[in-house]
Amino acid sequence: MSAERAAPAANGASRLSVAVVGGTPEGRARAGGVLTEAGLEVVASAADVRALGDGLRLDAVVLSADRIGPGELEAIAFVQGEPLEARAVAVAAALGGGAVRRALESGVGAIVRAAQLEECVALAVRSACAGQISLPRRWRDQLDPPPLTNRQKQALAMVVLGMANRDIARKLGVTEGTVKSHLTTAFRKLGVRSRNEAAALILREDGGLGTGILAISPTNGNVTAIAVDPPGPADSRARTSRRDPASRWNGAATKR
Protein backbone atom coordinates (compact mmCIF):
# COMPACT_ATOMS: atom_id res chain seq x y z
CA MET A 1 0.00 0.00 0.00
CA SER A 2 1.38 3.40 -0.91
CA ALA A 3 1.66 6.13 1.67
CA GLU A 4 -0.98 8.82 1.87
CA ARG A 5 0.63 12.27 1.71
CA ALA A 6 -0.67 15.22 3.68
CA ALA A 7 -0.63 18.77 2.39
CA PRO A 8 2.31 20.91 3.58
CA ALA A 9 1.78 23.47 6.30
CA ALA A 10 -0.03 26.49 4.97
CA ASN A 11 2.15 29.00 6.79
CA GLY A 12 5.39 27.39 5.63
CA ALA A 13 6.67 27.24 9.19
CA SER A 14 9.38 24.72 10.00
CA ARG A 15 7.82 21.99 12.13
CA LEU A 16 8.72 18.44 13.01
CA SER A 17 7.65 16.17 10.15
CA VAL A 18 5.99 12.93 11.20
CA ALA A 19 4.58 9.85 9.45
CA VAL A 20 1.99 7.60 11.08
CA VAL A 21 2.32 3.88 10.29
CA GLY A 22 0.53 0.66 11.21
CA GLY A 23 -2.72 -0.11 12.92
CA THR A 24 -6.06 0.60 11.31
CA PRO A 25 -6.92 3.54 9.01
CA GLU A 26 -9.09 4.92 11.81
CA GLY A 27 -6.26 4.57 14.30
CA ARG A 28 -3.83 6.34 11.98
CA ALA A 29 -6.33 9.15 11.44
CA ARG A 30 -6.78 9.48 15.19
CA ALA A 31 -3.03 9.66 15.82
CA GLY A 32 -2.55 12.06 12.94
CA GLY A 33 -5.25 14.36 14.30
CA VAL A 34 -3.66 14.41 17.75
CA LEU A 35 -0.22 15.20 16.30
CA THR A 36 -1.55 17.92 14.01
CA GLU A 37 -3.47 19.55 16.84
CA ALA A 38 -0.26 19.58 18.87
CA GLY A 39 1.51 21.54 16.12
CA LEU A 40 3.39 18.72 14.40
CA GLU A 41 3.28 18.23 10.64
CA VAL A 42 1.91 14.83 9.62
CA VAL A 43 3.22 14.34 6.08
CA ALA A 44 2.37 10.69 5.44
CA SER A 45 0.23 7.78 6.63
CA ALA A 46 0.71 4.14 5.65
CA ALA A 47 -0.14 0.62 6.78
CA ASP A 48 3.47 -0.52 6.27
CA VAL A 49 6.59 1.49 7.01
CA ARG A 50 8.19 0.27 3.77
CA ALA A 51 5.51 2.10 1.82
CA LEU A 52 7.00 5.45 2.84
CA GLY A 53 8.75 7.06 -0.13
CA ASP A 54 12.51 7.33 -0.44
CA GLY A 55 12.37 11.10 -0.91
CA LEU A 56 10.28 11.75 2.19
CA ARG A 57 11.99 13.93 4.80
CA LEU A 58 10.93 12.80 8.23
CA ASP A 59 11.91 13.64 11.76
CA ALA A 60 9.92 10.81 13.32
CA VAL A 61 7.68 7.85 12.50
CA VAL A 62 4.89 6.84 14.87
CA LEU A 63 4.42 3.06 14.70
CA SER A 64 1.15 1.65 16.04
CA ALA A 65 0.60 -2.00 16.96
CA ASP A 66 -1.19 -4.19 19.48
CA ARG A 67 2.15 -5.45 20.75
CA ILE A 68 5.85 -5.04 20.01
CA GLY A 69 6.93 -8.32 18.44
CA PRO A 70 9.63 -9.30 15.93
CA GLY A 71 7.88 -7.50 13.05
CA GLU A 72 7.58 -4.29 15.03
CA LEU A 73 11.25 -4.50 16.08
CA GLU A 74 12.21 -4.78 12.40
CA ALA A 75 10.08 -1.72 11.63
CA ILE A 76 11.81 0.25 14.41
CA ALA A 77 15.20 -0.62 12.94
CA PHE A 78 13.99 0.20 9.40
CA VAL A 79 12.87 3.68 10.43
CA GLN A 80 16.34 4.55 11.71
CA GLY A 81 18.22 3.34 8.65
CA GLU A 82 18.39 4.69 5.12
CA PRO A 83 16.44 6.13 3.42
CA LEU A 84 14.29 7.42 6.30
CA GLU A 85 16.87 8.00 9.06
CA ALA A 86 14.15 9.14 11.47
CA ARG A 87 13.27 8.62 15.12
CA ALA A 88 10.93 5.74 15.91
CA VAL A 89 8.06 6.18 18.37
CA ALA A 90 6.09 3.04 19.20
CA VAL A 91 2.45 3.08 20.31
CA ALA A 92 1.34 -0.25 21.78
CA ALA A 93 -1.82 -1.46 23.47
CA ALA A 94 0.09 -3.87 25.69
CA LEU A 95 3.60 -5.14 26.18
CA GLY A 96 4.66 -8.64 27.19
CA GLY A 97 7.68 -9.41 29.34
CA GLY A 98 10.93 -8.02 27.94
CA ALA A 99 9.30 -6.14 25.03
CA VAL A 100 10.31 -2.72 26.37
CA ARG A 101 13.93 -3.75 26.73
CA ARG A 102 14.05 -5.27 23.25
CA ALA A 103 12.43 -2.18 21.73
CA LEU A 104 15.04 0.02 23.39
CA GLU A 105 17.80 -2.27 22.15
CA SER A 106 16.36 -1.82 18.65
CA GLY A 107 16.71 1.94 19.02
CA VAL A 108 13.15 3.10 19.70
CA GLY A 109 13.07 6.70 20.86
CA ALA A 110 9.85 6.49 22.83
CA ILE A 111 7.07 4.07 23.76
CA VAL A 112 3.52 5.23 24.36
CA ARG A 113 0.57 3.27 25.75
CA ALA A 114 -2.29 3.33 23.25
CA ALA A 115 -4.64 4.30 26.08
CA GLN A 116 -2.57 7.47 26.60
CA LEU A 117 -2.20 8.43 22.95
CA GLU A 118 -3.89 11.82 23.24
CA GLU A 119 -1.91 12.88 26.29
CA CYS A 120 1.52 11.51 25.41
CA VAL A 121 2.21 10.86 21.72
CA ALA A 122 3.13 14.44 20.75
CA LEU A 123 5.32 14.80 23.83
CA ALA A 124 6.97 11.46 23.01
CA VAL A 125 7.72 12.56 19.43
CA ARG A 126 9.30 15.82 20.58
CA SER A 127 11.28 13.99 23.26
CA ALA A 128 12.59 11.42 20.76
CA CYS A 129 13.54 14.12 18.25
CA ALA A 130 15.44 15.90 21.03
CA GLY A 131 17.50 12.75 21.59
CA GLN A 132 15.72 11.67 24.76
CA ILE A 133 14.11 8.31 25.55
CA SER A 134 10.69 8.11 27.17
CA LEU A 135 8.45 5.24 28.20
CA PRO A 136 5.50 4.67 30.55
CA ARG A 137 6.44 4.44 34.21
CA ARG A 138 4.35 1.27 34.59
CA TRP A 139 6.52 -0.55 32.01
CA ARG A 140 9.92 0.41 33.39
CA ASP A 141 10.22 -2.84 35.38
CA GLN A 142 10.64 -4.63 32.03
CA LEU A 143 14.10 -3.12 31.69
CA ASP A 144 15.47 -5.79 34.03
CA PRO A 145 15.80 -9.44 32.99
CA PRO A 146 12.65 -11.33 34.02
CA PRO A 147 12.83 -13.41 37.21
CA LEU A 148 12.71 -17.11 36.41
CA THR A 149 12.33 -20.03 38.80
CA ASN A 150 15.06 -22.67 38.91
CA ARG A 151 12.84 -25.17 37.08
CA GLN A 152 12.08 -22.62 34.37
CA LYS A 153 15.80 -21.94 33.98
CA GLN A 154 16.56 -25.65 33.75
CA ALA A 155 13.86 -26.21 31.13
CA LEU A 156 15.01 -23.18 29.12
CA ALA A 157 18.63 -24.33 29.24
CA MET A 158 17.59 -27.61 27.66
CA VAL A 159 15.50 -25.78 25.06
CA VAL A 160 18.64 -23.84 24.13
CA LEU A 161 20.37 -27.19 23.67
CA GLY A 162 17.59 -28.27 21.29
CA MET A 163 16.05 -30.93 23.52
CA ALA A 164 12.41 -31.97 23.02
CA ASN A 165 9.87 -31.72 25.86
CA ARG A 166 9.83 -35.49 26.41
CA ASP A 167 13.62 -35.51 26.83
CA ILE A 168 13.48 -32.53 29.19
CA ALA A 169 10.77 -34.29 31.22
CA ARG A 170 12.88 -37.45 31.44
CA LYS A 171 15.95 -35.45 32.50
CA LEU A 172 14.08 -33.52 35.19
CA GLY A 173 11.98 -36.46 36.35
CA VAL A 174 8.66 -34.73 35.68
CA THR A 175 5.81 -35.12 33.20
CA GLU A 176 5.72 -33.50 29.77
CA GLY A 177 2.73 -31.48 30.95
CA THR A 178 4.84 -30.01 33.75
CA VAL A 179 7.58 -29.11 31.29
CA LYS A 180 5.05 -27.40 29.01
CA SER A 181 3.74 -25.44 31.99
CA HIS A 182 7.24 -24.29 32.97
CA LEU A 183 8.06 -23.27 29.41
CA THR A 184 4.74 -21.49 28.81
CA THR A 185 5.31 -19.37 31.90
CA ALA A 186 8.95 -18.74 30.99
CA PHE A 187 8.03 -17.73 27.43
CA ARG A 188 5.48 -15.26 28.78
CA LYS A 189 8.08 -13.71 31.09
CA LEU A 190 10.56 -13.43 28.22
CA GLY A 191 7.93 -11.99 25.89
CA VAL A 192 8.38 -14.73 23.26
CA ARG A 193 5.96 -17.18 21.67
CA SER A 194 8.09 -20.16 20.69
CA ARG A 195 11.12 -22.25 21.55
CA ASN A 196 13.04 -20.75 18.63
CA GLU A 197 12.30 -17.19 19.74
CA ALA A 198 13.37 -18.02 23.31
CA ALA A 199 16.65 -19.59 22.21
CA ALA A 200 17.37 -16.71 19.84
CA LEU A 201 16.68 -14.13 22.55
CA ILE A 202 19.02 -15.85 25.00
CA LEU A 203 21.85 -16.60 22.56
CA ARG A 204 21.75 -13.48 20.37
CA GLU A 205 25.21 -11.88 20.51
CA ASP A 206 23.93 -8.34 19.96
CA GLY A 207 21.65 -7.43 22.84
CA GLY A 208 20.62 -10.94 23.83
CA LEU A 209 19.85 -11.87 27.42
CA GLY A 210 22.88 -14.14 27.58
CA THR A 211 23.04 -17.60 29.09
CA GLY A 212 23.70 -16.01 32.50
CA ILE A 213 19.93 -15.67 32.82
CA LEU A 214 19.85 -19.46 33.18
CA ALA A 215 22.04 -19.45 36.30
CA ILE A 216 20.66 -21.75 39.01
CA SER A 217 20.37 -20.52 42.59
CA PRO A 218 21.43 -22.81 45.46
CA THR A 219 18.58 -25.05 46.70
CA ASN A 220 17.89 -27.31 49.65
CA GLY A 221 18.97 -30.41 47.86
CA ASN A 222 20.98 -31.71 44.98
CA VAL A 223 20.16 -29.94 41.75
CA THR A 224 20.25 -31.66 38.41
CA ALA A 225 20.54 -29.27 35.49
CA ILE A 226 22.04 -28.89 32.08
CA ALA A 227 25.22 -26.89 31.64
CA VAL A 228 26.45 -25.57 28.31
CA ASP A 229 30.21 -25.83 27.93
CA PRO A 230 32.16 -23.34 25.82
CA PRO A 231 32.95 -24.82 22.38
CA GLY A 232 35.95 -27.13 22.54
CA PRO A 233 38.46 -27.87 19.79
CA ALA A 234 36.12 -30.35 18.15
CA ASP A 235 32.63 -29.64 19.37
CA SER A 236 30.29 -28.19 21.96
CA ARG A 237 28.90 -30.68 24.42
CA ALA A 238 26.23 -30.74 27.10
CA ARG A 239 26.69 -32.39 30.43
CA THR A 240 24.49 -33.20 33.38
CA SER A 241 25.82 -31.73 36.62
CA ARG A 242 24.89 -32.76 40.14
CA ARG A 243 26.14 -30.41 42.81
CA ASP A 244 26.40 -30.67 46.55
CA PRO A 245 23.91 -28.25 48.12
CA ALA A 246 26.70 -26.79 50.25
CA SER A 247 28.63 -25.68 47.17
CA ARG A 248 27.67 -22.59 45.18
CA TRP A 249 26.67 -23.19 41.57
CA ASN A 250 26.70 -19.93 39.67
CA GLY A 251 25.49 -21.17 36.33
CA ALA A 252 23.33 -23.65 34.52
CA ALA A 253 24.98 -22.31 31.41
CA THR A 254 28.24 -20.59 30.64
CA LYS A 255 28.08 -17.65 28.22
CA ARG A 256 29.59 -18.59 24.89
| Cα distance spanning the termini | 43 Å
CATH topology tier name of the largest domain = Rossmann fold
Note the beta-strand portion.
15-25%
Number of domains: 2
Low-pLDDT segments: 4-13, 219-256
Physical arrangement of strands within the biggest beta sheet? 1-3-2-4-5-6
Radius of gyration: 23 Å
| CATH superfamily heading of the largest domain | Response regulator
Mean pLDDT: 78
User: Helicity level, as a percent range?
Assistant: 25-40%
CATH architecture type of the largest domain: 3-Layer(aba) Sandwich
Q: How many strand segments?
A: 8
What is the H-and-E element order?
Answer: EEHEEHEHEHHHHHEE
> Could you say which structural class the secondary elements and strand pairing correspond to?
alpha/beta
Structure write-up:
This protein has 256 residues and is of the alpha/beta class. It folds into two domains: 4-143, Response regulator (Rossmann fold), CATH 3.40.50.2300; 150-243, Arc Repressor Mutant, subunit A. The protein has helices spanning 25-37, 70-80, 99-105, 117-129, 150-160, 165-172, 176-190, 195-203; strands at residues 4-5, 17-22, 41-46, 60-65, 87-92, 110-113, 223-228, 238-243. The chain has a six-stranded mixed sheet with strand order 1-3-2-4-5-6, sandwiched between helices. Strands 7-8 form a two-stranded antiparallel ribbon. α2 (70-80) links the parallel β4 (60-65) and β5 (87-92). The longest helix has 15 residues, at 176-190. It is elongated and about 65 Å long. It starts with a strand and ends in a 13-residue tail after the last strand. Residues 4-13 and 219-256 have low confidence and may be disordered.
